[in-house]
Amino acid sequence: MARVLARVRHVDVGYLPDMTDTDTDTARLCAFALTCSLKPSPEPSSTDLLTQQLLDAMGEHGVEGELVRAVDHDLRPGVESDMGEGDEWPALRERILAADIFVLGTPTWMGQHSSVAQRVLERLDAELSDTNDAGQPRTYGRVAAAVVTGNEDGAHAISATLFQALNDVGFTIPAGGVTYWNGEAMHTTDYKDLDETPEKTASTTATLAANAAHLARLLRRSAYPPA
Q: In the chain, fewer beta carbons within 10 Å around the N or the C end?
């Protein structure tokens, strides 16, 4: 069993890493993770913990990552990129679009992704109408991955929903595009309560980190052609 439980690091949303490297095989990449716990910071979150482990694993492949908890921000309901005064989605959206890899993390409630995650998916709908010079959504060429936690079943169904929604708005999903942990049904042990990370979860996280970084570098080297 691998002891890789790690402390979650939250980074200021305003941080912009230097991505001026020109060698796409070794260039540093940027990952932005948005987690959708129902609990505001600084309350511990299993979803944040597993997502941070994924970011740490990506760091071994030259990826700089930051993690933000969505519920700490005022994300107004709607499907526009900016829902007006007080809406904090535009700042998060710019972080998503500035990153090579977008990670969306959610807990499991009643077998479903959280209501916060659904709000994020609805706000991402606006990306269909914001296009680049080739007429493609600005999300084209960016990789998306998922993180799911919960002490009940549902990870496969949730990741399928996230994959479809993220792909619909232009993100590319790598092979093995989710890492997850499901605890025993109807029990109270959370991922953050474990003394050690289960070996299967650790290996899945490591594989996703490698695949996401590899795919992001491929897309940076060779963008999707115009239709």
A: C
Round to whole Å and give the CA distance between 48 and 161.
20
The partner residues of 137 in beta bridges, in order of sequence, read 131
Give the tens place of pLDDT for each residue, 84-93.
999 999 999 9
List CB contacts of 196: < 8 A, sequence separation 6 or more.
1, 2, 3, 4, 5
Fold of 29-221: Rossmann fold (3.40.50)
Could you tell me which residues come within 8 angstroms of residue 163 by beta carbon, excluding any fewer than 6 positions away?
Answer: 146, 173, 177, 178
Specify the pairing of strand 112-113 against strand 63-69. Answer: unpaired
Q: What's the pLDDT at 84?
A: 97
Contact between residue 45 and residue 8 where contact means Cβ atoms under 8 Å apart: yes
102: β partners: 32, 144
What pairing do the DSSP bridges indicate for beta strands 101-109 and 112-113?
antiparallel
Domain ranges of the chain: 29-221
The structure tokens listed for 41 are 């910071």
- Counted residue by residue, the chain has a size of 227
Cβ neighbours of residue 84 closer than 8 Å, sequence gap 6 or more: 76
> pLDDT grade, residue 44 (50/70/90)?
very high
Shortest CA distance to 67 belongs to which of 8, 116, 144, 139? 8
